[in-house]
Inverse folding.
């Protein structure tokens, strides 16, 4: 697109940090292909357990995972290799000091069905997809990522509260413009996005999607991206996650 400020992209952190950290030869560079305007929403994820699992907390699940390591480890559901649930599952396994086996599913519906049916012991899902199933008593939520609890699951502690601060991935949505968009245009866009994200109606609409509305400017966007590229790359290497 022409770098004139009239064509923007809103995409999830998988675009900016997960895929670039795990996959070579992407047709874009998250650093150089875009001008980073702002992060506008955070998307925490939740560790889920089947109801029959003898673990009521993330720490108890970690202990169980350690006990099962010799037999290949607990199986946990993901959305496929290199997905956010896969990375969070590996972070949890590392924090637990356990071996766990990822099982890929095509999407949240299939994954939740497998968890309810006992095909897998644990899994990681988005809060928006998991919250209705948790509230209906079909699965149990053990912990959420992020620095604070989420309104959709207020009784579920964070991994930090659970003593597992290494499980730290929070998804997010960032707004970018094409590279070489002129600075005056970027300044105009930044002011506009800051105003939009201060609008109570916009914030309510985002919160209704089980996302946390935020405004993190271009510098904060770039800093978060750089940190996650490093962290996810290291997790991927230790867990031997390859997408090539």
């Amino acid at each position: 697109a022409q770098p004139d400020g009239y064509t923007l992209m809103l995409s999830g952190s998988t675009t900016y940090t997960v895929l670039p950290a795990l996959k070579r030869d992407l047709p874009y560079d998250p650093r150089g292909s875009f001008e980073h305007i702002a992060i506008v929403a955070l998307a925490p994820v939740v560790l889920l357990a089947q109801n029959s699992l003898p673990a009521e907390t993330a720490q108890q699940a970690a202990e169980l995972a350690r006990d099962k390591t010799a037999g290949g480890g607990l199986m946990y559901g993901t959305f496929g290799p290199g997905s956010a649930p896969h990375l969070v599952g590996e972070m949890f396994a590392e924090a637990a000091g356990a071996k766990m086996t990822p099982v890929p599913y095509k999407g949240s519906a299939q994954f939740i069905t497998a968890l309810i049916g006992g095909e897998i012991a644990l899994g990681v899902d988005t809060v928006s997809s998991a919250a209705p199933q948790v509230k209906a008593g079909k699965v149990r939520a053990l912990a959420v990522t992020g620095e604070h609890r989420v309104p959709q699951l207020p009784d579920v502690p964070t991994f930090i509260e659970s003593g597992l601060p290494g499980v730290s991935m929070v998804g997010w949505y960032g707004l970018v413009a094409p590279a070489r968009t002129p600075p005056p245009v970027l300044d105009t866009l930044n002011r506009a996005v800051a105003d939009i994200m201060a609008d109570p109606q916009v914030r309510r609409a985002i919160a209704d999607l089980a996302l946390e509305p935020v405004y993190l400017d271009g510098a904060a966007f770039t800093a978060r991206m750089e940190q996650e590229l490093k962290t996810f790359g290291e997790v991927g290497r230790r867990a031997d996650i390859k997408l090539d």
In short: The helical segments are 13-22, 58-68, 84-96, 108-116, 127-135, 183-197, 200-207, 218-239. The first strand starts at residue 9 and ends at 12. The CA atoms of residues 22 and 112 lie 26 Å apart. The chain is about 40% helix and 20% strand.
